[in-house]
Amino acid sequence: MRVVILLFCFCSVLLLGCKKKSTPKSPEAALLVFPDKDSECTTGRDLNDTTSEVEFKWMASDHTESYELRVTNLNSNITQTTITKSTSAKLPIAKGEPFSWLVRSKNTNVNETATSSTWNFYNAGSITTYVPFPAQLVNPQNGASLFKDINNEITLEWTAADLDDDIIGFDIYFSTENPPEILEASLASTKREETVSVGSNNTYYWKVVTKDAEGNSSDSGVFAFKVL
Questions:
Q1: CATH number of the domain within which 165 lies
Q2: pLDDT of 39-94, one tens digit each?
Q3: What is the pTM of this model?
Q4: Which of 37, 88, 198, 201 could form a disulfide with 119 if both were Cys (CB 3.0 to 4.6 A apart)?
Q5: In terms of residue numbers, what domain contains 158?
Q6: Are residues 119 and 58 in the same domain?
Q7: How far is it, in rounded angstroms, from Cα 59 to Cα 44?
């Protein structure tokens, strides 16, 4: 009997030793909470006449050790970053300026990261009229490779927002040259897509300029895609 027990213990040790370690899981994307998307942030703590400290908040994401907050001034294109293990972080940012922000979830056990959606907002200041937020290019995504349809066409899609709610139209620039300088179409404010003609084995560049009733405009930046 003693021999049987010893043999059983020996086999158990072998099985435990051979058990495969679980593979670390990649972090998941965080859900943004505040500042709200396409809003004016009025809760910043005044630091001086030109700057206030804003607290950014998001939901905890699974399999995440730390978060990288990235806040970009849409006028200067300057990005501030900070890393935290919390689900909030504070940054000093300029008053009366438009910003975008996102959060990257990280885990030291894996190389992959997960990126949240990107939200735009204005930090409150003394301005009385707001430039439209840059249009967000939705489709085709930047760097995409795709096939044209049966009519040799592809549909460009975007979203747009303005705190004043006075967008009057969009200028669509589309070309095989970067940056695109050919005005493909000028569209009414109700439009959020435009169909363009394309050819196979070409790379195309496009952007959207959003215009409002006060004479303000914003540039989406350039996206590129390849037609197979």
A1: 2.60.40.10
A2: 999 999 999 999 999 999 999 999 999 999 999 999 999 999 999 999 999 999 99
A3: 0.83
A4: 37
A5: 136-227
A6: yes
A7: 20
